[in-house]
Amino acid sequence: MMRLGMVGLGRMGGNMSTRLVRFGQEVVGYARGEASRRAAAANGAEVADSLEALVAALEPPRTVWLMIPAGDPTEKTVASLGDLLDSGDLVVDGGNSNFTDSVRRAAALAERGVSFVDAGVSGGIWGLEEGYCMMLGGPAEAVDRLRPALDALAPEGGWAHVGLSGAGHFVKMVHNGIEYGLLQAYGEGFEILRSSVYDLDLRQVAEVWRQGSVVRSWLLDLLSTALEGDPNLENVAGYVEDSGEGRWTVLTAIDQDVPAPVTALSLFARFASRQDESFSAKVIAALRREFGGHAVRPDTD
Question: Active site includes 179?
Answer without folding.
Answer: yes
